[in-house]
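Pipeline run #58 for the internal structure catalog. This entry was flagged by the ingest filter as a single-chain record with no existing model, so it goes straight to prediction. Upstream metadata was stripped on purpose; only the residue string is passed forward. Reviewer on rotation: M.T. Logging verbosity set to normal.
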Amino acid sequence: MPRILSGDLPRSRILAALLLLTLVVLAVSPFLFHGPRALAVAGKVLVFIVLVASYDLLLGYTGIVSFAHTMFFGIGAYGVAIASTTIGSSWSAIALGTGAALLTSLVLAAVVGLVSLRVRAIFYAMITLAIAAAFQTLVSQLSDLTGGEDGLSFGVPHLLSPAFRPFPGRLFGVAVDGGIIGYYLLFMVCAALFLALLRIVNSPFGRVLQAIRENAFRAEAIGFRTVVYRSGSNVLAAAFATLAGALYALWLRYNGPDTTLSFEIMLNILLMLVIGGMGTLYGAVPGAAIFVLAQSYLQDGLRVLHHALSGLGPVAAFFQPDRWLLWLGLLFVLSVYYFPTGIAGRLRERER
């Protein structure tokens, strides 16, 4: 197990139990929670774990504040969507679209990194924000290629379609189809990508990134070319975000500007990372799981409370489902107050 986790264990029994519980629940979600909505939420959690972990490599381990991470997420999603729409619903289209998206993201991330990382942090953040906004506008304008504001819907290989049934009957009360096969394919790929990120941050390259984060001038003084390492971190984070976007588009069988490119998604990634804990990588798991579950089911929970407290007048009004964003904001404030270093960081400190 330590070898699989690159020698970086959770270092907290509570955190290890939380990670194991999340892993088990995600592994059995198709059989534990029935219905397409629960499966869709579980798939979104898997994708955002990888996306948030890739941003943690950039922000938590290197100290780079970038607002263009969703741009690479969107490039991966559009690569699969455009290729599948143009070529057809085949594995070769998915491979071609993912490869083209990866190449585009790597070149763009390298150019942005080499040109922009020489400026101070706040100016780099503003540059990436401007680039992301320009890219989103460009995607919306190229309607013949990207579908514009409506986005692109596409088919998937027959193995992943709901119509595919590998065997008759049910397994543990569930009719196994292509949707469940697609979920477990997503589960395995996301687990492999997370372990790869864990390997990167615990490699000598990852140690240099942490040194740059702590004191860039000192790292430069002892011989490390900080611009090269920061550019490498930018490229790696972009590559993993691109792969996460390709998986998300394949899972949804759709992609549009609001699905992967909106600034709201960038803010959500930041919130997930802060809740889970920056500079731990493990924090991406509870951060993404808690935020996506709250985003998906908080409104339903408030609706139940509102009906249960309907006789209390003003108290019931406070729990109206339309005010779920207020409660989501309150959840974030409380998590930052009680877990200033995030869930993973706080649990590790408590164990020490």
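catalog note: Residues 13-351 form a domain with the ABC transporter involved in vitamin B12 uptake, BtuC fold (CATH 1.10.3470).
catalog note: Residues 226-252 form the longest helix (27 residues).
status: ready for reviewer M.T.
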